[in-house]
Amino acid sequence: MKEALLYTTDANERAHCAVCIHRCAIAPGHCGMCGTRENRAGRLYTHIYDQVSAVQLDPIEKKPLYHFFPGSQVLSLGTYGCSFRCPGCQNWELSRRAPDESDATPRRITPQQAVQMAVTTGAAGICWTYNDPAIWIEHTLEAARLAREHGLYTAYVTNGTATREHLDLIGPYLDAYRVDIKACTPEAYRAISGVGDGTEIFAGVEYAKTRWGLHVECVTNVTPTINDSDEELRGIAHWIVTHLGPDTPWHLTRFHPYEGFAHLPATPLATLDRVYLLGQEAGLRFLYVGNVSGDPRQHTHCPHCAAVVVRRQGFTVTAMDIAEGKCPHCAAVIAGRFV
Predict the structure, then answer these.
(1) CA distance 96 to 113
(2) Please, is 10 exposed, middle or buried when counting C-beta atoms within 10 Å of its C-beta (0-12, 13-18, 19+)?
(3) N or C, fewer C-beta in 10 Å, the chain?
């Protein structure tokens, strides 16, 4: 175990954790909500510092990040535990278990080893995903600092529960913040996440962009009967335009029944069509449809002349036509970070 970052201890030896928005007050001998941070006699320790549940070399499009070095390869790592309790979690085997509860033996990878692995495999960057990286700050901070020294980009694939204190630590070394925006209203947010109403998440995402200049892309898994109303989706689109800007990519992904949401139907394609139009009406310039094989709305179009500037087949970039961040046909700026 390693002593945790971002906590204080009160007179009763309770450890007050500040890595995520739940800000757990942890009594001696207990763990916080994520199950990975334990109070031992007033000192907080992390169980997951070098515990890796999954590691893989991926195309950056798989995250999905479409305006952040498209076509590049990124080393993806995850650990155990999570700051949410999503009923329909696709990675529940990792997010709801501690390392010693897993069926597989956790792989021990230090931050130094992770960065060296990224360099050796030829990855352009390193990202933390699969479970939420907010609870892994002791690992991600060290790795992000080393990645910067090696010329690698860094990314969080996150539910947005990192606190401002967390973002202030990682912000100088983090490049991209791919965040789930699960709903607009508190009731729908709570139904999908299992905890919380989304208020602090919205504030944190805006802070990540405005204070630290992180590249932000948003994802909403359009879930029937929960967040698929015009009210919910128009509200999300309006918030993105108003607080993050109209050039912020919004990925609309098709929900598939799973776990606690196994009783719900898959998202009708007509619903995705409707949401796409709502996003356009709100003023968003870069909208994408995910989890639908072969959908042409996975391509990137110039918002000025509509030319295809990045063409994709699944997670593979098959053609890229961007010159110094601009459309070669009309010279309009394509928002994002490109080689």
Answers:
(1) 25
(2) exposed
(3) C
Count CB atoms within 10 A of the CB of residue 153.
24
One domain for residues 266 and 291? yes
Tokens of 48: 């997951």
Same domain, 217 and 330: no
Residues 156 and 243 in one domain: yes
d(CA 62, CA 315): 6
pLDDT in the model for residue 195? 87
How far are the Cα atoms of 57, 130, 196 from residue 152, in angstroms, in the given order? 14, 20, 34
Confidence tier at 196 by pLDDT (50, 70, 90): confident
Using pLDDT thresholds of 50, 70 and 90, give the confidence band for residue 26.
very high
Bond into 64 cis (ω within 30): yes
pTM of the prediction? 0.96
Q: What is the domain count for the chain?
A: 3
165 CB-side CA count, 13 A: 14
The token pair that represents 318 in the structure block: 């098959």
According to the model, what pLDDT value does residue 97 have?
Answer: 65
| Token pair 């918002």 in the structure block, residue | 303
CA 331 vs CA 71, 257, 336: distances in Å: 21, 43, 15
